[in-house]
Amino acid sequence: MKKQLLLAALALPFLTFAQSNKVFLDKNTVGGAEIMNSSDVAPETKVFEAMVQSSASTTPHKSISKRGLITYNFVKVGSTYYDLQTNASVGRRVLLHADGKVSVAWTTSNDAAYVNRGTGYNHFDLNNWLTVGNPTSRLESVRIGWPSIGVNNGSEWVMGHDAANGGFRLSTNGSIGNNTWNGTSVLTENNLRPIWGRAANSGNYFHAIATYADSSQPGEPRAPKRNGVFAPMTYSRSTDGGVTWDKIHTILPGYDSTRMSNGGGGDQYAIDVKGSTVAIITGDQTNDVMLFKSTDNGTTWSKTIIDSFAYAPYNSKKLMLDTPRVCDGSMDVLIDNNGKIHAFWGLSRVFDDDTTDESYSFFPGTSSLVHWNENTNSAQIIAGGFDRNKDTVLSISAGNTAALSNGTVPQTLKNNGVSSVARLGNTSLLHCPSAGCDANGNIFVTYSFPLEEDVDANNVNLRNIFMTHSTDNGSTWKASQDITQWAGVEEEFACVAKQVNGFVHVIFQQDALAGTNLQNNSSADNNHPAGVNDIMYAAIPVAKILDGSIGVMWSTSIEEYKTNQEVFVVSQNQPNPFSNNSEVLIWLNTESNVSIDITDINGKLISTQSFGSKGAGNHSLDMHAEGLASGIYFYTVKTATHAVTKKMSIN
After folding, report:
1. What's the whole-model pTM score?
2. Are residues 388 and 528 in the same domain?
3. Mean pLDDT estimate for the chain
4. Greater confidence, 261 or 560?
5. Claim to verify: residue 328 and residue 434 sit in the same structural domain
6. What is the secondary structure of 115-165 as a DSSP string?
7. H or E, element range at 561
8. Is the peptide bond before 13 cis (omega within 30 degrees of 0)?
9. How are beta strands 431-438 and 499-500 bridged, if at all?
10. Which residues, in sequence order, are CB contacts of 342 under 8 Å at separation 6+?
């Protein structure tokens, strides 16, 4: 049993408890790079993240509709009444194809009772999205949730869980962008309910992880215990594209009760696959953060404890007075271009001063993002809470860290002018990292964090999506930037494509209220009624991320930004080589006429294509090869003030 500590304040050199409505940031570590020794089992004694306790702001912030530092476009790709996209980790919901096309998936429902819950899907063919407006229809004919998306042999697949019966449904569409889907049940298990899956593939090798739903209700199945672990995380594998599975809900080597006290936990794990390498991480508030790695498509595995829990294996008879650091369960894992693993998770802390009960306490207001790097076998804090008003204090509503109490909003919140709660399960204030990398080795990570002074109608702070990045394989990390910069609405559950191609492709859910109906609404209070949530997409130019010009808006003026005119971004044309047409994605700082000059290898001008005036943001240009012989050419994308040249091949 878990209890939250909302009123705890840490002070060194000893621990005290006191009521507080302010949280002071540790300037030496928030957003910095404090190293954590992954082999050290001794508890930490330094507080290196912000701890949010009870800061109930009662002054709403005026909404700002203009995002001054952002000129890339946000596209509404879907809608859903069902608003809980995950309990912890986000999973794989964005797919960047080799030719630059993009497919996205999410859990959707077109009704407030969630009867028609299933997989939402949309596809961008470099010109248009497959569905526009409010696409809410599901792919499946049965109730499904928690999809992963991938591609194999020119066909896309999605796999989501059947929560009612257990097991998963694997659906395919025959060709990329096709919206006709056929599905089949996979990975079912007699008298059990496997659920909350994550799946990824490399060719015909499909890999999936999951855990078990548990119920003590009569007639409902209990979760199993394996290797001494109740409701464990399992691993499954198919070698023929998901048709058959030679490993079904197996336990990975070293996953046992030697150091584990809790099982898989809903969504407290993540998977990535690249070539024959498979990486799986898992962890939560009373377990180690563990990496399982295979370099032979899941045949053999190695286990690494990448962050030790000081009291493993935990039991309720162990005092934890030093608030040891733990993982909050929201995490992601990434295999870089060199086959090395990068793990990310939200940091939390736990506490137990009473060994007579079966519970422990945790701090839902911690705000640190941790990165573990296989190159150095070490972890560091790479991002922290965003102090918008620069007063060294995080003023975040207590509603952001509170949960419903006996089905209602706690009276203590109501007494302080806060009429709702908005915590995502047992995760921290900073949570849900999602990571991708490009061919140059740059790594990009998004995460969610509430914005100071921006509150909803219930006086709870609304979240924005932030991003940090590394240009040296994760050794150092740059300052975080706010990639959404909306006020008056909440952005949550961001997911980025694992591959980055000059743009970071990201989707997220947007809502007018903080939190979710599924986890935070009280029928007695009706504080978060079911409503339509938008699924938004953006292609964020890598060049603007790398030069830091997206910023956070709240501390950089629009005028300051406009004086810094950078060269616009041009992606490599796709497909390349080509024989008829090829697409070029561009990003413009300001409105300008755009043209493309094509020259041969001797510099002779072959043709010029004019595209007229294009506004600031993302655009797709269609380049033609009529009359061009096979060979190497150069194309130059030109605006009024800049020109970028790249090489292409005609076959």
Report:
1. 0.81
2. yes
3. 85
4. 261
5. yes
6. TT-EEEEEEE-SS-BSS-S-----SSSS--EEEEEEEETTEEEEEEE-TTT
7. helix 558-562
8. yes
9. parallel
10. 333, 334, 335, 336, 371, 372, 373, 374, 435, 443, 474
